Amino acid sequence: MEPTAEDLRTVIDDLMGRFSGIPDDNWQLNAHELDWSCRETAAHILDDFGFYAMQLSGTKPPQESYIELQDPPPWRDGGPQLLFYPDAGTGTPGIVSCLDAVGGLLVAVVAAAPADRRGYHPAGLSDASGFAAMGIVEAVLHCHDILTAQGVDYRPDDAITDRVLARLFPDVRRTSDCWQDLLRSSGRTAETRGRHWRWDSAVRTGR
After folding, report:
1. In which domain, by residue range, is 89 found?
2. For 23-39, how does the pLDDT look when each residue is reduced to its tens digit (9 = 90+)?
3. How many domains does the chain have?
4. CA neighbours within 13 Å on the CB side: how many for 104?
């Protein structure tokens, strides 16, 4: 079974619940092992959701690059350039609301996309299951970065994690702990931190 819109919605709902417990002032903390603040990291999740939805929602043949929107100027030197950015004045509720809304766009597009719909990603031309998987991986890994910075343990649903590993990381070494496998595959363990990594979002042969 491949990742689905329902899997993505489950992950988003879980993140909303967990993020709702973060105090407003704590979003300014640096995310774990990143140069971005927790707020910037949450905004990065929103950008991924929004851009993935736009790549998959069009009816024209896939482009050879991301949808060509005007990049905003950097919010600060060294920070991510973001299209979706929660209003800092709205605190934690604003971030949770944005996560619900922008995540909902990707959920809806993944659910409605025809089986033959393709969208661009630099790691491989992808389909609905691929974009669902990429949205899930971005969400759970950066949730890990944010919650670790808050001193909060996090582990996503094992069945969903197993499906996204099979879809995006088909060749990685697997163990009995799929969450640690994903953290290892994304350079988030002691032995892999700093290593280059990349998933494979291409549609598998025969699909």
Report:
1. 5-63+78-185
2. 999 999 999 989 999 99
3. 1
4. 7
Q: What is the CATH number of the domain that holds 56?
A: 1.20.120
Question: Residue 142 domain-assigned?
Answer: yes
pTM comes to 0.90
Cα(96)–Cα(84) distance, rounded to whole angstroms?
13
Distance CA 81, CA 92 (A): 21
Structure tokens at 37: 């603040």
Structure tokens at 99: 């996560």
